[in-house]
Design goal:
The chain has 295 residues and is of the alpha/beta class. The chain is built from nine helices and eight strands. The longest helix is centred in the middle third of the chain and has 16 residues.
């Protein structure tokens, strides 16, 4: 059987998988993430840590002294991935720098509480707190409070989708990179890519167990929300070789059926987590996301 990953993605996937522990021990997973080497992101004019009403955040401003006569810039509130169990501000520093530099938007990266020590709803509550804080700071940052976008990769994409569901009137867009959207995990892509594509079905099921909450609740599984009408515009970026691919496509269909302006980018030949790799698909995804943010 031919490999669905590109040759470059297959080599990288196997290297990453060999260094990544199986599910079951959050401390081992966190240690593996901390030990992983990361390429630095681009220079950004101002980067500083702050406190969003008790939630640690890091602010990336590509242009700290904007033209006073210029229109307010977009403000991106970003939630990192990591199965709600691992990662943080440092693991996603390069990606946030990249997004800020490419889009011209201010990016607020959110260090929400992690499971299993802090199960649902700790993370989505922290996400909403950070959104409210960022909105209150928008003018001071030279941003338009009506141009606030929630964004996130993987489990951070879930938090972005949930935040948009909880406060649609405060959000102008949702940027979701390969998000888990239904704890049921019953789509064909779960079976097709269960093993051998870095992010396994076993890992995802374990992450959901650590996260907690009622799987049927829309603030746990956004795909189960009864009504998506009135949500902000969305860009959903997916990896073709990913257990989460089909639920991302299903969410996009439901958003479209609800009248929401929703675009999908499906990147072939790559695996879950490709944004953090040197694969060409990562550059293409960031460039398209930046253009979408500016729009």
């Amino acid at each position: 059987m031919s490999d669905s990953l590109s040759p470059a993605a297959r080599r990288l996937c196997d290297l990453m998988a060999a260094a990544f522990p199986g599910p079951g021990d959050p401390h081992a997973l966190r240690a593996a993430v901390a030990a992983g080497g990361r390429a630095p992101g681009p220079a950004v004019a101002d980067v500083h840590d702050d406190d969003a009403c008790g939630v640690p955040v890091r602010v990336y401003d590509p242009r700290p002294d904007p033209d006073p006569g210029a229109p307010g810039r977009p403000l991106v509130v970003h939630f990192h991935g990591g199965g709600w169990v691992m990662c943080g501000l440092d693991t996603h520093d390069a990606g946030c720098r990249r997004l800020a530099a490419a889009s011209g938007a201010v990016v607020v990266s959110v260090d929400y509480r992690l499971a299993p020590e802090h199960p649902w709803p700790a993370a989505p509550d922290d996400a909403l707190t950070a959104l409210l804080w960022a909105r209150s700071r928008a003018a001071a940052l030279g941003c338009d409070p009506d141009r606030i976008i929630v964004a996130g990769d993987s489990s951070g994409g879930t938090l972005a989708a949930v935040t948009a569901l909880r406060a649609p009137e405060l959000v102008s867009g949702q940027l979701l990179f390969y998000p888990p959207l239904d704890a049921a995990m019953d789509t064909p892509s779960v079976a097709t890519y269960a093993r051998g594509h870095f992010h396994t079905a076993a890992h995802m099921a374990w992450y959901w167990d650590q996260y907690g909450g009622d799987p049927a609740h829309p603030h746990v599984s956004p795909l189960r929300a009864p009504d998506l009408t009135g949500l902000p515009r969305a860009l959903i970026v997916l990896a073709d070789c990913d257990v989460l691919r089909d639920e991302g496509l299903a969410y996009a269909r439901r958003l479209g059926e609800a009248g929401v302006d929703c675009a999908v980018q499906l990147h072939p030949g790559v695996f879950h987590g490709f944004l953090g790799t040197p694969l060409p698909a990562a550059g293409a995804a960031y460039a398209a996301a930046a253009a979408w943010i500016r729009g």
